[in-house]
Design brief:
The chain contains 12 helices and 9 strands. By secondary structure, it is of the alpha/beta class. Strand 1, helix 2 and strand 2 form a beta-alpha-beta unit.
């Protein structure tokens, strides 16, 4: 068996290099993503990040899931001609549905466009993520584990309250194992969904009933991005909905690449808006962080990861 360090180095180098070549897309069947009969629309807004975006799309297409779903990619008037051409070529093969904004509208408006055109449950998935086999099945199962769950969000290396291995941190370096291996371990552990105060927008499953009840993201209040999912979750919460963490699922997230240097400013502005619209929000989040109900799931994943690393070193 190959040692985990060698596998990890190869994975990191692959991500740092070019996106998947066209030959690597040949095994993806287009019929799998036809709109008829789908119960979930996976919506991926894209703008910059040529390699990350194509890798994210390739991962959605390659991941084996039982849940009937459709991939909808929305090009928010990307300035990258290479990315536009590649998206056109792949969509032309029927791999996904491609929509294109005539002008750059930002993440919030682009996500709303996708959710407005869908009649199904949706997953809002950032274009700097990696998903793996069974991810959508487990995410959907978490969302439907209780009738009053509106959303479900997986664990990730960069997901604030759902970050692993260290919460509230952007864990840039994979903790010993590759993200795919971590997701396999999380799936095998099968941790039950855990109630959380808000979804995290990098990978957010939203039930159609909750979306119809609480409404779309607030474009006027949250502009081009950050904070819109927190506002949605608070509005849904006030209508009786709750939110779940899919603790048996791990999705890799490069985090913040779309906004570049404006990220900190946008976060600060979003938090000011949240304080104005939902003054109780900060206290709810503080109470959740203090209680840390995700801790047992993290501890189980830590122990399983240590066992996997020890076994790998002995092989």
């Amino acid at each position: 068996m190959m040692e985990y360090a060698d596998a990890l180095i190869r994975w990191l180098r692959a991500l740092a290099a070019a996106p998947p070549p066209m030959a690597d897309w040949q095994d993806v069947p287009p019929r799998r993503f036809a709109g008829n009969g789908c119960s979930v629309d996976v919506i991926v807004p894209v703008y910059r990040g040529y390699a990350e975006t194509l890798c994210a799309i390739r991962q959605v297409l390659a991941a084996r899931c039982a849940t009937p779903h459709r991939l909808v990619v929305i090009d928010d008037a990307s300035p990258d001609a290479r990315l536009r051409r590649q998206l056109d070529a792949l969509a032309g093969r029927g791999l996904f549905e491609l929509l294109r904004n005539e002008a750059n509208r930002g993440f919030v408006a682009t996500a709303n466009r996708g959710m407005r055109l869908s009649a199904n449950d949706v997953v809002l998935l950032n274009a700097d993520t990696e998903v793996f086999d069974g991810w959508l099945d487990r995410l959907r199962a978490a969302a439907y584990s209780s009738a009053d769950y509106a959303t479900a969000t997986p664990l990730s290396n960069a997901a604030t309250i759902l970050s692993y291995p260290i919460p509230l941190r952007d864990n840039r370096k994979p903790p010993g194992l590759s993200p795919k291996q971590l997701d396999r371990i999380a799936a095998a552990l099968g941790a039950a969904p855990i109630e959380i105060p808000t979804a995290i927008g990098f990978c957010m499953y939203v039930k159609r009933a909750a979306l119809d009840h609480a409404g779309l993201f607030d474009e006027a209040a949250f502009g081009r991005g950050y904070g819109e999912e927190n506002d949605f979750c608070m509005r849904a919460r006030k209508l009786g909905w709750r939110h779940a963490a899919a603790a048996d699922t791990f999705v890799w997230h490069w985090s913040g690449r779309s906004f570049g240097g404006s990220r900190k400013r946008r976060i600060a502005q979003a938090m000011r808006t949240m304080r104005r619209l939902h003054p109780e929000y900060a206290g709810i989040i503080a109470d959740f962080i203090a209680a840390d109900p995700i801790a047992p799931a993290r501890a189980s994943l830590d122990a399983a990861r240590a066992r996997a690393l020890a076994t790998d070193r002995l092989c």
